Amino acid sequence: MLTRAGERLAGWQRTMILTHERPDGDALGAAGAMKRVIETAGRQASVYVFGEVPPRYAFLDKLCGLDRWPAAGGAQLDGQFDGILVVDTSSWAQIEPAVAYLRGSRRPRIVLDHHATPNDLFGRDAELISLIDAKAASACSLVWQWCELMGWQLDETAGQALFSGLITDTGWFRFSNTDAATFRAAAALVERGCRPEILYARLYETWSQARLRLKARLLNSLELSPDGRIATMCLTLADFAETGATQADTEELVNEPMSAESVIVSVLLSEMDSGKIRVNLRSKAPDVCGLDVDMAALAQSLGGGGHRRAAGVRVAGPIGEVKTRVVQAAQDAIERATKERRKTSK
Ligand SMILES: [Mn+2]
């Protein structure tokens, strides 16, 4: 399938590349790398991003040259491209600004993704090749495999873009999705001149001052349950206003309390402008802490969703009441996990 898709892509003189809304390092890395690969082969490609590129990823914008999706909806672009490559998503809900355009367009498309969402909708109106591997750690590791198989040349820029996606989707090689394929791709990129220490500085040492101040307040709000297993942190609208930080600045902060050995569940509550409270939930892996505390189930019980280790929900405030409810639910979840463990060890 990769070969067939590769041959198809090679036949397009002009390729439109799209990725999901609120793009992350993997989305922009995969899209930017494919643009460079196509250009290096002497053909044209444009990446269209929905909305703004987050400041953290501005260097990828600069390196690869990304365009903004036109507010008019994209129909005017149709004559300018032979085919459409969608990376890191296969869900209509994540490409909302382009849905009307894609439904009307007859351009053939290739979708490359590592999420297990059903994607048949992309193909209803036009020819579609799906490259979906739900086991892959990142879209960038799939792009890497694709390039290897097709013998496509990766220049330094494409390598940096790919490395960015490999490491952001695996939390710098530490999440449970980190696999041998990721390390193989990373090793090969380093061999070709990619410098991890520079990319680390670009991705992890370029946050705003406002975020650092917000983090100070966040840690100051930390409360631990009597047994030390549940960490709770709160950010109020005043915290955001007085530090100048935004909701986007809370990215990854929920993980901070995990540095303490006793903590197995971390809860971050942030007040939003809408008046709702955003709840971020994390739990440690059972291989590490001995308990499988299901955050997806906890979030679902409050109307949200997610994965077993990382989930979230937005609920009506006030923040103090939400905190009490969520901490109680977390305690119940730990108790359930403890019972489960006793059952299986019997
Ligand atoms: Mn991804």
Model description:
This protein has 346 residues and is of the alpha/beta class. The chain folds into 2 domains: 2-204, inorganic pyrophosphatase (n-terminal core); 210-345, Roll (Diaminopimelate Epimerase, Chain A, domain 1). It is built from 13 helices and 12 strands. It has helices at residues 2-10, 25-40, 58-64, 99-104, 139-150, 156-169, 180-191, 196-204, 209-220, 237-243, 286-289, 295-301, 319-345, and strands at residues 14-19, 44-49, 67-68, 83-87, 109-113, 128-132, 223-224, 230-235, 265-271, 276-283, 305-306, 310-316. The strands form 2 sheets. Strands 3-2-1-4-5-6 form a 6-stranded parallel β-sheet. A 6-stranded mixed β-sheet has the order 7-8-9-10-12-11, sandwiched between helices. α10 (237-243) links the parallel β8 (230-235) and β9. α6 (156-169) runs antiparallel to α7 (180-191). The longest helix has 27 residues, at 319-345. It is globular, with a radius of gyration of 22 Å. The mean pLDDT is 94. The structure holds manganese (II) ion. Manganese (II) ion (MN) binds next to loops. Manganese (II) ion binds next to loops.
> What structural class do you assign from the helix and strand content?
alpha/beta
State Rg.
Answer: 22 Å
Mean pLDDT: 94
> What is the fourth-level CATH superfamily of the largest domain?
inorganic pyrophosphatase (n-terminal core)
Helix content: 40-55%
Arrangement of strands in the largest sheet: 3-2-1-4-5-6
Label the CATH architecture of the largest domain: Alpha-Beta Complex
Strand content: 15-25%
